[in-house]
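Sequence in, structure out.
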Amino acid sequence: MKLYVSPKAPNPRRVRMFIAEKGITGIEEAVVEIGSDQHRSEAYLAKSPLAKVPVLELDDGRVLGETRAICTWLEGRFPEVNLMGVDFDERAFIEMTDRRMELYVFGGIANCIRHTHPGLAPLEQPQFPDFGRSQGEKVREVLRWLDTELGSRPFVAGERFTIADITAFCAIEFARGLMKLRPAAEGMANLQAWRDRIAARPSAKL
């Protein structure tokens, strides 16, 4: 198998963390340089028609896109360590939390950065700075809610580390860099403590 990634991009990092947490080996990585438009090359578009990273090329030649779908396939192919739920009940609640992290945290952060950061202008035309700033404010509302939740449980989706922690962590790290988000400085001590614990995991250092 081959995983197509792009340096510093948060979605490929989610998949790489997922692979590391599960202890999967033998997946080759191929770098796609977004800054030099390699994601828009004819060869790459044949694998990812919407020019997105990551994609996972399977051994049978099929190509799977979208981060959550890639992780779902890997979870089925390599069921241990379980990161998405052991039965329908746990799977549903982990998926609910992961979707919240993806839609309301990750998505809002991406919108904020893509519409306010001048370095992202080539990827987002036209930029709408007012929209981007409003997205940043909405993200912080969700993070304050998450901070409260993390006051009563150790991980985002409950009592153990799951894919929801990966999604939230990669989003917040993306925001740390380009939104200068510092949870502790904004009164979110529980979120900061959680972030620091996740950052100490070997998978977070990739």
